[in-house]
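quick one if you have a minute, typing this from the bus. theres a chain ive been looking at and ive put its sequence and its fold in token form underneath. please have a look and point out which stretches look like helix strand or loop to you. anything you notice is useful, everything is just below.

***
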Amino acid sequence: MTDMNQEATILLPDDTLQFECSKGVPCFNECCRDLNQFLTPYDILRLKNHLGLSSTQFLEQYTSQHTGPETGLPIITLKPRYDDHLKCPFVTPQGCRVYADRPSSCRTYPLARIATRSRSNGNISERYMLVQEPHCHGFQQTKTQRIKDWIKAQGLEPYNQMNDRLMEIISLKNRLHPKALNLAAQQLFYLALYDLDNFRGQIFTNDLLNGFITEPESLEAIRSDDVALLKLALKWVKAKLFSQP
């Protein structure tokens, strides 16, 4: 994936990008090895459902957990194949076997999204970092399109929306609680945002939302709707850890 230490160019949504990736490009699958790939809660939701696994099963089988050195928050990374050039566990000679539900960083590549939230009105502005890695021949292709059209074609809208909610929590944490969270808070964060199926079970068997105001229809929706559950989890973490509505 993208190496942030490579020389980069900053682009706006209306700027153009000359790039194309397909099986016909000589470097096909090269960006799927030597991985150090972070997964967001929404990435995990999409991947575990694609694979027909519970969140707990997916996390145990395909991920590693770390603690952010700056935020002190749990961070989830994809386990590469250590015996095969650190390749992604989902890559095949024909391409990605989870392509329809691939993570947001894969969808955005060769761009990296930089989102900034206005303190005055809460609006989010976007910029994109273009990283041209030496192995990539995609830039030698003739297809040209606007950045915003590329983002739309890659199906990034729901990913960006959910990831922005996560970034809001991280920003709150850095502002209100600059020190590392204690172990109990870290476990709560991990449970609610990453281990969604376990979180759902805790809600309905252990009354985990006790004291958290939730409409009856919302509770009914989260029994089967993972996106509704993740949205509720993000709100609950804000309230539980940082006393924010």
About this structure: The chain has two domains: 8-161, 177-242. The mean pLDDT is 90.
